[in-house]
């Protein structure tokens, strides 16, 4: 019997949408107000969803306490109250929430107690992003 477990975590961080591949004008044109040199912040909500068989003894897909401890060490302590642009994972990537979702997926894929189905991140009350670790379809097929 396969079941799904989702858990939400929250952290606050600043960022600036900026690409070294663009000049100042292109950055302004592509990222608009989000390219403001002083940056801005968000209260991010991260939701991770795992799947697995329900343990016949504990009745659990995985232990929430273990997941919370993993999230505290590998997500909250790493991202909360930081400037995302200064983190190693954004050295060569724009700090969009798509890229953040990919990084958070990579992190939680390391939580081996259950199968990671997807990562869902809410950046503002108007936008959210999902990443399920699927390989991109070959060019021209999507
Ligand atoms: N494809 C993406 N586009 C944008 C992203 C992103 O991660 N991926 N991020 C931003 C900015 O971070 C911006 O701060 C949030 O976008 P914006 O739509 O301007 O903000 P909201 O209207 O949702 O909320 P407010 O805080 O009220 O402006 C932009 N684009
Ligand atoms: Zn932003």
Automatic annotation (TrEMBL):
Enzyme Commission code(s) on record: 4.1.2.50
The name this protein goes by in its record: 6-carboxy-5,6,7,8-tetrahydropterin synthase
Species annotation: Edaphobacter modestus
Named cofactor requirement(s): Zn(2+)
Broad class of enzyme this protein falls into: lyase
Pfam family, one: PTPS
Chemical reaction(s) catalysed: 7,8-dihydroneopterin 3'-triphosphate + H2O = 6-carboxy-5,6,7,8-tetrahydropterin + triphosphate + acetaldehyde + 2 H(+)
Associated pathway: Purine metabolism; 7-cyano-7-deazaguanine biosynthesis
């Amino acid at each position: 019997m396969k079941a799904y477990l989702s858990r939400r975590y929250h952290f606050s961080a600043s960022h600036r949408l900026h690409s070294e591949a663009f000049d100042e004008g292109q950055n302004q044109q592509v990222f608009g107000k989000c390219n403001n040199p002083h940056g801005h912040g968000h209260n991010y909500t991260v939701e991770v969803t795992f799947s697995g068989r329900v343990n016949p003894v504990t009745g659990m897909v995985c232990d929430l306490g273990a997941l919370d401890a993993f999230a505290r060490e590998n997500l909250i302590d790493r991202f909360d109250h930081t400037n995302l642009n200064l983190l190693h994972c954004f050295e060569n990537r724009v700090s969009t929430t798509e890229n953040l979702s990919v990084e958070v997926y990579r992190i939680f894929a390391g939580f081996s107690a259950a199968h990671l189905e997807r990562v869902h991140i809410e950046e503002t009350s108007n936008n959210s992003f999902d990443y399920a670790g699927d390989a991109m379809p070959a060019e021209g097929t999507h």
